[in-house]
Amino acid sequence: MKNYNNLQIISEIPINLKVRVNVLIVQRTYTPKPGKGGLTDLLKMVNKNTIAIGLPEMKVYRKFLGPHGTVVTTQEWESIENYNNSRDIVRQTKEITSIFEKIYPLLDNTHITEILESA
């Protein structure tokens, strides 16, 4: 075992720590019409394109209980302002809007958006 009692600090390296105090999670629930498939794959494509334009990852989950085929997505945001600003960016990105044009006909109703704040 080495003895480190006589160590000198030769240089100081600044360490930047990011601390997230208030995190928002935007959760969306998509319920397909009976017999309609492909929703999960399309939402995974949306996620890929969302990341490509520099927005946070959109995690995709299938519900275990509840209406068959329901998919839930979550996305973490540092602030409501960042989330709101992203809406215009998403609407102007054809690689995302073209996928939603395929998603909407599959849905039983419009998706439900919920915003959760860390406690």
General description of the model:
- The protein has 119 residues and is of the alpha+beta class.
- It has helices at 39-52, 80-91, 94-103, and strands at residues 24-30, 58-62, 71-77, 112-117.
- The protein has a single domain (24-117), classed as Alpha-Beta Plaits.
- Strands 2-3-1-4 form a four-stranded antiparallel beta sheet.
- The protein starts with 23 loop residues before the first strand and ends with a strand.
- The mean pLDDT is 89.
Beta content = 15-25%
Form type: globular
How many domains? The number is 1
What gap, in angstroms, lies between the N and C termini? Answer: 45 Å
CATH class: Alpha Beta
Please give the count of helices. 3
Radius of gyration: 21 Å
Order of helical and strand elements: EHEEHHE
Report the biggest beta sheet as strand number plus sense, adding barrel if it closes.
Answer: 4 strands, antiparallel
List keywords for this structure.
about 120 residues, alpha+beta, Alpha-Beta Plaits, 4 strands
Short description, anyone?
The protein has helices at 39-52, 80-91, 94-103; strands at residues 24-30, 58-62, 71-77, 112-117.
Layout of secondary structure:
Layout: E1 24-30, H1 39-52, E2 58-62, E3 71-77, H2 80-91, H3 94-103, E4 112-117
Antiparallel strand pairs: 1-3, 1-4, 2-3
